[in-house]
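Worked example

This section walks through a single chain of length 200. The input is the sequence exactly as stored; nothing has been trimmed or padded.
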Amino acid sequence: MTPHALYDKFPPDMNPIDDKLTNSILACLFAALISIGAYIAFPLPGTPVPIVLQNMFIMIAALVLGPWWGLATVFIYLLLGAGGMPVFSGGTGGFMKFVGPTGGYLFGYMPAAVAIGFIALKGKGTLLANILACSAGMAIVYLFGVVQLKFVLNSSWGKAITAGFLPFVIGDIIKIVLAAVLAPKLIKGLEHLSERESDG
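Given that input, the structure is written out below as tokens.
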């Protein structure tokens, strides 16, 4: 069975993995990976927004778990950060991060996860569908992020776009492709594990 064929078994409002316990465990695992990805941050001159890997793990989580468990994963991650745990970029945390210059990106992760999950499911997890899904998701993240960056810093739209979007385009294209390629392999691996457990 090819990875995208797994999507044939589920309607678009569900996820490719039909097991609540497995989804719960994976949601917590992905939330931890997102937190780790936030620590891998590369600051850029002229912008308060660093390059991070957390968005790649969010994309993979939404592709693997679907829209609602992908959203649950992001919610767990954001809840940990809002509670003060140092899981945001550069090992920071706290509720004030949501109202700071980079808070819009955090808010954008939630609708982005839903959009990525739905588009990927609609496209049955093909590479092209995954790339389109992740691209749409990142567009949502940047929409939220640039808007809040502009108003918090009281800057022009041009400066907000230059500081909060343009420096990250190439890196995010690479992360989108990596997420689109890795997600079907993870789904296929999880399916094989499930089949082995059933046979056992």
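What to look for: DSSP finds six helices and two strands in the chain.
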